[in-house]
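Subject: mismatched residue count in predicted assembly?

I count 1388 residues in my input, but I want to confirm that the predicted structure covers every chain. Input:
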Amino acid sequence: MIKASVIGATGYAGVELVRILGQHPAVQLVALTTESYKDQKMSAVFPHLVHGVEMTALELDLVAVVEKSDVVFTSLPHALAMSIVPAVVAGGKKIIDLGADYRLKDATVYGAWYKHQHTDLENLAQAVYGLPELHRAQIRGRKVVGNPGCYPTSVALGVAPLGRADWVDWDSLIIDSKSGVSGAGRGLSLGVHFSEVNENLKAYNIAGTHRHTPEIEQEISGLAGRPIKVSFTPHLIPMTRGILSTMYFSIKSGVGVKEVYEAYQAFYSQEPFVNVLEPGQLPQTKHVYGSNYCQIGLAVDQRTNRLLVVSVIDNLVKGAAGQAVQNMNLLFDLEETVGLRTLPIFP
Amino acid sequence: MIKASVIGATGYAGVELVRILGQHPAVQLVALTTESYKDQKMSAVFPHLVHGVEMTALELDLVAVVEKSDVVFTSLPHALAMSIVPAVVAGGKKIIDLGADYRLKDATVYGAWYKHQHTDLENLAQAVYGLPELHRAQIRGRKVVGNPGCYPTSVALGVAPLGRADWVDWDSLIIDSKSGVSGAGRGLSLGVHFSEVNENLKAYNIAGTHRHTPEIEQEISGLAGRPIKVSFTPHLIPMTRGILSTMYFSIKSGVGVKEVYEAYQAFYSQEPFVNVLEPGQLPQTKHVYGSNYCQIGLAVDQRTNRLLVVSVIDNLVKGAAGQAVQNMNLLFDLEETVGLRTLPIFP
Amino acid sequence: MIKASVIGATGYAGVELVRILGQHPAVQLVALTTESYKDQKMSAVFPHLVHGVEMTALELDLVAVVEKSDVVFTSLPHALAMSIVPAVVAGGKKIIDLGADYRLKDATVYGAWYKHQHTDLENLAQAVYGLPELHRAQIRGRKVVGNPGCYPTSVALGVAPLGRADWVDWDSLIIDSKSGVSGAGRGLSLGVHFSEVNENLKAYNIAGTHRHTPEIEQEISGLAGRPIKVSFTPHLIPMTRGILSTMYFSIKSGVGVKEVYEAYQAFYSQEPFVNVLEPGQLPQTKHVYGSNYCQIGLAVDQRTNRLLVVSVIDNLVKGAAGQAVQNMNLLFDLEETVGLRTLPIFP
Amino acid sequence: MIKASVIGATGYAGVELVRILGQHPAVQLVALTTESYKDQKMSAVFPHLVHGVEMTALELDLVAVVEKSDVVFTSLPHALAMSIVPAVVAGGKKIIDLGADYRLKDATVYGAWYKHQHTDLENLAQAVYGLPELHRAQIRGRKVVGNPGCYPTSVALGVAPLGRADWVDWDSLIIDSKSGVSGAGRGLSLGVHFSEVNENLKAYNIAGTHRHTPEIEQEISGLAGRPIKVSFTPHLIPMTRGILSTMYFSIKSGVGVKEVYEAYQAFYSQEPFVNVLEPGQLPQTKHVYGSNYCQIGLAVDQRTNRLLVVSVIDNLVKGAAGQAVQNMNLLFDLEETVGLRTLPIFP
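Triage response: the counts match. Full output below for your records.
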């Protein structure tokens, strides 16, 4: 059994990790830590865990956590994981950070977007961006995984197959993303107040101001082979879970949707968690609800020579906790899908 | 492997059965039938099944289905299963009916409420009401199971422990139930039109007119040891899944919530799917979302000498498909919880 | 023009008052006060006001407010209005309090439920409970109005016509109420966090612990002519606006729904804001959305000798701000419906 | 009083017209027609009308309707109004069509998109596209108004001020629109089934296949002064009312948001129903809920040289019935805002 701990187990991504790890056949949870609910039973704070997780959330004792764990998950606001990772690595254990600290390879970019100087350049240099569908080979055997953000996951999976072709103008990429409210976390604000969100719709952090922008650009630039800047616009949708990203590219005249579909199919044919829909079909967030799956739809608008890609994920699973467990499976040479094959809940 | 078929696999309860059975380690799905989507791949109709269920929905060929199945599930409008059950029983196979045809022991009561004469009295006499927490011993070894309705499940689990005590006036029972919209099925009507239901709330089929009333009364009468009539009022809530039933009893003066709680704890202590909350805690439907669990909260209002019981289930799982699989596990001497321990999705 | 001020204009009831008063043909808004948004334009905080209300929210200067106003509305947490009312009355102006301080006639009951000693017994004695349909005559000419709570409004309107008849056992009354989330106010808490409320349902403050209980009992006792205790159970519904109360009475054998309906029709025939539905019809909260109307449905369950009454209101309008304006119209001898005839928004 | 009729009064746009016209101080409703609810009282079908509209919905008798009306509104599926308009015009009355038949000036474009040959070319030639903010002068005195679609209204208002400047590349325009479910009408389909839409999100009719595309292009081409093709992608959002359109343009390097904002302010400064938000503010659909207002937010992404425009309307009011009444006010030389100044409902 892999001994796993979650530091920050009482936010939405953290408790989702607990749910998934608590049902994982090869994992034993050994420590769950919290700032807000110290010494309370997890099932008292989150009654949905009552039949499966009998642990108590504790204040963080980092030495003890490292000592007893094979792998540590951190699910914390940015700038906190970087003070934890060195101790885990020094202790010879693996760490998967669900926050932003180990995603951006360039520490100056991190500093510019997160207004905080990175203090763990050594491990940052060793860290891998944990998107298995793009970086599987580099993830295996690594010590530190920067688990991708929810929006970047939906985008990178949506455009990855285009990296092999010469069809699209990467500079033309416009990303219009829509997210459920759980992506904003469990903290309190008017922005997540039911009466302000329900039966309402808005864009936020637009025009290149959302912090997932550099992470998206890092992956897109990798696919394009040169630095790319994108327009990324997030929207808040009155639902709890799910991200849908609509992506627009200028595409070479004459490239049809069948060709694009075949390239996507080829790229993802062996991927257990990504499904490419046949042209004419479009994905819906509910079709991946509560699961680690991603579904992708494709269309070419011949009138405007544009390729449209629509991708959906569950922001808390493939966009956070599920992907973290997928990375853990890779780190420990398990079957990549173990503990993650639960079918989506519909309706 | 148990060979299982679902007749009526493309309604909400049917497809939920497919989802659960498709992930059950001891089950092999052998036939899925449909009226509406003949010869279509299940995953084309329900894309959430794409990674787990590769079957095609077929028109019903009853002889073939019985032939190849160990157990048949029927998930059909009332009055249809009674023309299927005899053939299954004659073929020596087990059948679990998620509809209403085999729930009411008294065929005249069935006829009065469903406006249809029962035509399979022989199997009705043999059938068992498939609520394991109340009738587990009678379910084992039976051929025909009448799987309980969603409302009656939430009510019967909520009041069952009171059958042993002498505390409540059974005639005083008032049941105010609230259900998500999926309970109304996948058929089209203004009553399930999003714009009519969203941001809206109503009672319906009130004052003893809802067809779950006789089923509730059958179980309550069994607990009380004499015929009881109840006030049962269902309400439609703008959410997809979940039932919450609030039940009001006149209670003997002097009986406190601690006493009641201990009786409930004792009654359910060995039950894998029912959780009684400590006094002061109240259940929420989201805490059982997508799962086979039931949670129950208790309170005594000393000012009015009333006992309040609040129970929650997922109407499509413990209220339909999950309970059907729980019954199947019993019929085939499997561990009762196999395939059903998935934790609820939260948030 | 009546010069009106709102103290506490940036909570949900307060801003709803601003919306209604801002469109009232006989009202001029002269002061809006706030704790949270001092010196901000109302339309910057609440952009829906941009085309109709050009005022700035100010810190409370009570002397100035009284000086410039003919009527003051207070929309504050309990125990605050009682320090404001004396100054308004002393200044010779009218005051309508949307909070709890002037609703309960018995100050010891207030103290027991609100854990705060009432400090303005003089004005409390003069105050009228501002439910026009029950107390219209007493409201006219009064100086201080205690505007009813949202739940009590839905209940009192639902049962008022029974006060004239001898049909029901008042002690048998069970009230199962369901409210949208805006009733919990604009303050932040997990209880109004979108991801915790959406697709969820719960009871709260049950078994005689909700602070609207004594207010309900005061009005019921008035109708019954003797002290009555009721079971009142509130539930939180995943919608923004609307209250539906389902009320259960034991009723004299032989009294039919037609008789009850006719009594209700007679009682409410001249009321501009209350509509009694014909037997067989049931009210929906959406049918009064955004309006000052109340709709009531009736049924008699002959099987159990119970009368069911279902009433719906918009909690922020008839349950708060609209009713306050209705009271203002009465205080100033205006047509009672002025500024309040806007039809509900549907769907 | 203007005598007004609504042909097709029991769809969502039709009944919204009835609600607005029923409260309009200069209008008398004289006939409401229906296919589905013949001879039923409007308030029986739509109980929110009970306090304001006492009419019965009748089968269409066109001669009688024209005879008694000064203005006729048609709210019908496409291809039906064109058989009604000639009779209304021949009768010397005005007509405002909320459907698609009189919006596209080019009948061949209409035929290509709606798969139906236009049979009333004469009136089509006389008709005006009823977007007052762009075509006010042409609307006055006209007989036939083609009332704009909901999406095109949100788009045309969002980009209209750019027609005067030389900043944007019109060919670069990408429109990502999101609509509430009421835009799909009151007809039944799985696409509006609550359990399929709630807690879900999807794109539909993408890549230049939605029928509002040619209407959008007609208006955009008018602004650009040459034929323009656009990418228009609609999405279905789990809410009842509201459209938000996010529009992306390539913009000349060096043009800042302040410049753009000032141009928008200048363009809309005299418009009663359009509000341009200051840079940094973004519109939300809830801020125009139930009202005829449009709010617009602006941003320039200097990193990618893109202008982002975000516009919101209520799809049933400014996107349908409210705009139709605004057009009626123009046709009859009333103050343009009469009957339409109701503030949005928030929250």
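Chain B touches chain C through 48 residues (CB under 8 Å). Marking this ticket as 'not a bug'.
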